TrEMBL record, chain A:
<keyword id="KW-0067">ATP-binding</keyword>
<dbReference type="InterPro" id="IPR003439">
    <property type="entry name" value="ABC_transporter-like_ATP-bd"/>
</dbReference>
<dbReference type="Pfam" id="PF00005">
    <property type="entry name" value="ABC_tran"/>
</dbReference>
<dbReference type="GO" id="GO:0016887">
    <property type="term" value="F:ATP hydrolysis activity"/>
</dbReference>
<keyword id="KW-0547">Nucleotide-binding</keyword>
<dbReference type="InterPro" id="IPR027417">
    <property type="entry name" value="P-loop_NTPase"/>
</dbReference>
<dbReference type="InterPro" id="IPR003593">
    <property type="entry name" value="AAA+_ATPase"/>
</dbReference>
<dbReference type="GO" id="GO:0005524">
    <property type="term" value="F:ATP binding"/>
</dbReference>
<protein>
    <submittedName>
        <fullName>ABC transporter</fullName>
    </submittedName>
</protein>
UniProtKB/TrEMBL annotation, chain B:
<feature type="transmembrane region" description="Helical">
    <location>
        <begin position="89"/>
        <end position="109"/>
    </location>
</feature>
<keyword id="KW-0812">Transmembrane</keyword>
<feature type="transmembrane region" description="Helical">
    <location>
        <begin position="115"/>
        <end position="141"/>
    </location>
</feature>
<keyword id="KW-0472">Membrane</keyword>
<feature type="transmembrane region" description="Helical">
    <location>
        <begin position="20"/>
        <end position="36"/>
    </location>
</feature>
<protein>
    <recommendedName>
        <fullName>ABC-2 type transport system permease protein</fullName>
    </recommendedName>
</protein>
<keyword id="KW-1133">Transmembrane helix</keyword>
<feature type="transmembrane region" description="Helical">
    <location>
        <begin position="196"/>
        <end position="216"/>
    </location>
</feature>
<feature type="transmembrane region" description="Helical">
    <location>
        <begin position="48"/>
        <end position="68"/>
    </location>
</feature>
Amino acid sequence: MNSDDWLRAFAAELHQRRVGADAARHVVAEAATHLREGGGDPWVVFGPPRQYAGVIVESIGTAPGPRPGPVRLHAQGITKRYGRRTVLRDATLTVRAGQIAAVIGANGCGKSTFLRICAGLISPDDGAVTVSGRLGYCPQSGGTADFLLADEHFVLVGAGQGMARGPARRAGRVAARQLGWEAGGDVLARHLSGGTRQKLNLTMSTLSDPDVLLLDEPYQGFDQGTYVNFWDQLSRLRDAGKAIVVVTHLLNQLDRVDTVLDLTPAQPSGWLAPGAQGGHP
Amino acid sequence: MNRLLTVAEMTLRELLRRRGVLLLLLLMPLTFYLIRRDSYLGQSVRSLLLGVGWAVSTAALFATTAARELEPRLRLAGYRPHHLYLGRMLGLWTVGLVVAVPFFLLPMIDGANLRYAGLAAAMLCSVGVAAPFGMLIGALLPRELEGTLLLLTVVTVQMLIDPAGSGAKLTPFWSSREIATWAVDHTDQGYLDRGLLHGLAVTALLVLGVAAVASVRLRRRRHLRHLPVS
């Protein structure tokens, strides 16, 4: 990670911790000046971006975060069986506007199934989901058309909302740029790298301006910079009042979310993250 | 209407970019025509029509299978099931007509003494039936291999079955064969009428079948309740 990457990661951490925009800009500019004039590896000079952001937050405090809004997604008592195997048992999750919820758990515990039930793509054996507003869904993989360009994907998704071609293309390119990707090329989706294809997937899910965004491990194949941009974008969407549910197995990101649904069948240590809602009682 | 046309356009773009597959699909009707050309023109033209039907239904099968994961998210993005299946069908019919034109001209260049209006009607029936037929198989069988094998079976049955037998009328491309007989052998009007009626009825049934499967697969689930943004 060079100085620019470090500064980007540092800025994202400050944003994530709700440091005021002006104060964050000032702190990042100071750090950049220090690195430029004094030289040296930022990891040696300041330490990891996350740790240094923590120090800054302790020193200057944070801007008050927006209060969570009304309930946007309420999944109650979701149970799903495949044959004799119960994949989900009585899973419950409530997410409000301006919140990020993480769905965690071991492989095969039903994280993707839960999300697909919330999106209305499959039916549960029991339980109900109430969604307030428009839904957006980003699958773990697939969900794009091999022989279409990125712009054509944006036009296709945009037309669903009655958007004209030009605005749909522009909106798609702007959303892609926030993930560090210039989407306006003439490369077919099948020729995109795995990570870039996921950026297309993610961009498509935000294009229809959903009130509730369901993301199934959308960062597969992302490089470090994109991964930081991804969480940065989630924070922006949260601040804009969106309710976000993200399936993840990366437990080191749980401090970035407001609530956690753990679908692991047994809790050996009884540990649950703050705000955790257990899916298997 | 814009949503339907956008899906049709994207289907068209996708198919026209699969150049390798398209060329191989075009090869089949041509081979069918040429292989029987020396023996009996009627058989040659009927094989050509069957080849066109095979090519278009295979393209429809691939297009439907490829869109399987995309369609649910398009549904979430505001499309209704009929936008998706009718749009795709419209795109496939357009591709089918484009594919049919050179094969309509082929017997003409070959100097065959045919009723060309009949050949055009048979081509239309072939394309009209093939698109929803391939889509229906693609919707029912999720993997391309199974779908292709089923298509192959149907086409083989169609080729080998006695056209005068009652079972032949149950095969999807019987209409184009009947009309082709009228066009090639200059038979009575009954062949044309029966063929057109069969073609229309089979196309309508297949479109309804595609509509039913798509409506079930892309239905709004009962467990999900949508409320307006408060």
